[in-house]
Every structure is written in C-alpha cells, then in structure tokens.
Amino acid sequence: MLFRGIDLSGFGGFTYITTNRPDGMLYVGFTDDIYRRIAEHKTRHYPNAFSAQYNLDKLVYFELFETAAEAYAREQQLKAGNRTRKIKLIEGMNPQWLDLYDEIVE
Question: Helix, strand, or coil here: 31?
C-alpha cells in the first residue's frame, strides 16, 4: 500500500478522521489496515454504526504508528480533544478536505 510515495505496509497502526463533507461531522478511529477500514466505512459494512448512520466515509486525515496500541492511544487523545484542534490537524495535512482514500494505492 502506498500513499504519496510512502509504503504504508510497514506500519502497525493508523489513527484517522473521516467526515461526510468539508467542515462536516467528524469521526475519529484507529485500525491496523487503513485501506480495508476506510473501504468498510464506504460500503457501510457495519450499517448500525455511528459512521454509517451519518455517512462519515471520506478519509480527510490520518497518522501512522509502529503499533496498533500507539494508534489506539492517539485515537483516545484525539477523541478527548475539541473540534477546533481536529480541524487544525485536518487542514494542516489536507486543506481542501479531499478524500485521501483515493490516493492510497493498494
């Protein structure tokens, strides 16, 4: 898996933020396979989940970690933070709020 020339397969965990539209509702999660997990959001693999109910399927931000445990800890930190901080993270990496999933090459 590649993203902007970075081999994502060497990382054990990812923390990510999805949305339904620019400056819309935000969802923070973590996974050990970003490509698979965002595909699950897009196909509403878990139809009763919060992210499915609000169409939160656009990957607008993510961070890479060596382990899933580190990604989980970061997820908890981001969830405890406020919306303004999350928006600053998104706009620092992705100012146009593009769906970054489209840039991941499996």
Answer: strand
